[in-house]
Amino acid sequence: MSKILIKNIKGLVQAGEQIPSVRRGAEMKQLEVLENAYLALEDGEVIAYGPMNEWEGIIDWRELEIIDADGCFVLPAFIDSHTHTVFAKTREEEFVDRIHGLSYEEIAARGGGILNSARKLSELSEENLYSDAKKRIERIIQTGTGALEIKSGYGLSLEGELKMLRVIKRLKESMPIVIKATFLGAHAFPAEYKENERAYIDLIINQMLPAIHAEQLADYIDVFCERNYFSVAEMEEILKAGIAYGLKPKVHVNQFSILGGVEKAVELGAISVDHLEEIDEKDIQALKKSNVIPTLLPGCSHFLSIPFGDARRMIEAGLPIALASDFNPGSSPNYDLMTILSLACIKQKMTPEEGINALTINAAAALELSESHGKIALGRKSPIMLTNEIPSLAYLAYAFGEQHVQRIFI
Ligand code: NIG
Ligand code: FE
Questions:
Q1: Can you tell me the distance from the alpha carbon of 71 to that of 302, in angstroms, rounded to the nearest whole number?
Q2: What is the per-residue burial (b if ≥16 Cβ within 10 Å, else e) of 254-269?
Q3: Per-residue pLDDT tens over the stretch 25-44
Q4: Residue 61 pLDDT more than 70?
């Protein structure tokens, strides 16, 4: 049995049984910070917390590891609700092409982009795909991430998609944090289906989905709804087929253009709509009437030099924003959610409090993990992070690029 007491915590963040499972609009600036606090964990479970002057006597002293967190903050680990962590190779050559002036869409049109990743994935064994992803996740955890969503979508064939999803399943079983799997067969049309896109949609619906269902390989279904990728009608057909197999939608929409995908995803009961670099009033109104979590991915905007999602407009409209890394080799090769927090504050004018809510409770909601993740509460066993000594909570966002996490408790 492991017993840990963290004492003299400068600020214990997002701790409380009453904290809601989602914060919308103006509520997003609310953040519980208990100053000069303690937190006691037994086998990773929160057994007590409160102000320092109340802790004496509550704790059984035997075999207790005591951590002095003087000057440090304790927060629930962040949740990354949108990633493409399983991939074969990085894509620096496209990065350099963009420096020379090509756009993400131009690179994709030349067979780069997602199709480039799919080619590389087909050449890598399942074993190597697994061991590379495992190493990445070990590093991801060290940056303070305590739950992760991972998408398929670089397979783009029955074998390839199953290979990715089997790797994700193995990661779920072997890694110490919760991982959720999303089937993204509709990420791009493979080159061999360019003249017959219908056949690829049929492959997704008639072959991939039944095989994925038979092995219970996915929790969610995703479609990249975008010009040159999947239309709203195609997204609708694919999502409905996924829903029939029990997969709830989490979708890529409005990265480059507004096609009406947000309204359709809301209508189909999506858990989240992700990207939203572009948004219009109709989208906002549709989201307002729903429980869908709009998820912004500032790492992608930064890396591709495309607009940042209009967080202020969405918050002012009363929406509950989540933030995620979109970690992937093409549009966001960074998994550090502290960097995402900085970008959201610097570029999207979210306050640090709003950003922390977006990476904890709202991100938990975007992965249906509200009952276990996103806040520190009695009886919970979800991961918790301890920061280095820092002058304030805002410093997490302010000192961008600095490593702030001292330790993560899982
Ligand atoms: O979320 N937009 C579509 N999919 C990924 C990028 C995939 C890639 O370029 O490899 C994204 O940005
Ligand atoms: Fe993505």
A1: 32
A2: bbbebbbbbbbbbebe
A3: 999 999 999 999 999 999 99
A4: no
Rounded Cα distance, 13 and 360, in Å = 10
Q: Are strands 384-389 and 64-68 parallel, antiparallel or unpaired?
A: unpaired
The residues lining ligand 1, judged by C-beta closer than 6 Å to any ligand atom, are: 113-114, 117, 224, 252, 255, 300, 326, 328-331
Fold of 3-77+375-409: Urease, subunit C; domain 1 (2.30.40)
Q: Look at residues 344, 407, 363, 333 and name the one whose alpha carbon lies nearest to residue 136.
A: 333
CB 227 within 8 A of CB 153: no
The residues pairing with 76 across neighbouring beta strands, listed in sequence order, are 384
For 389, the token pair is 């000594």
Residue identified by tokens 């397979």 is: 155
Q: Are 81 and 367 in contact (CB under 8 A)?
A: yes
CA of 119 to the centre of ligand 2 (A): 18
Tokens of 33: 């910070």
| CA of residue 376 to ligand 1 center, whole Å | 32
* Residue 56 binned pLDDT confidence (cut-offs 50, 70, 90): confident
Give the 3-state secondary structure of residue 264.
Answer: helix
pTM: 0.97
Homologous superfamily of 78-366 in CATH?
Answer: Metal-dependent hydrolases (3.20.20.140)
Distance CA 368, CA 272 (A): 10
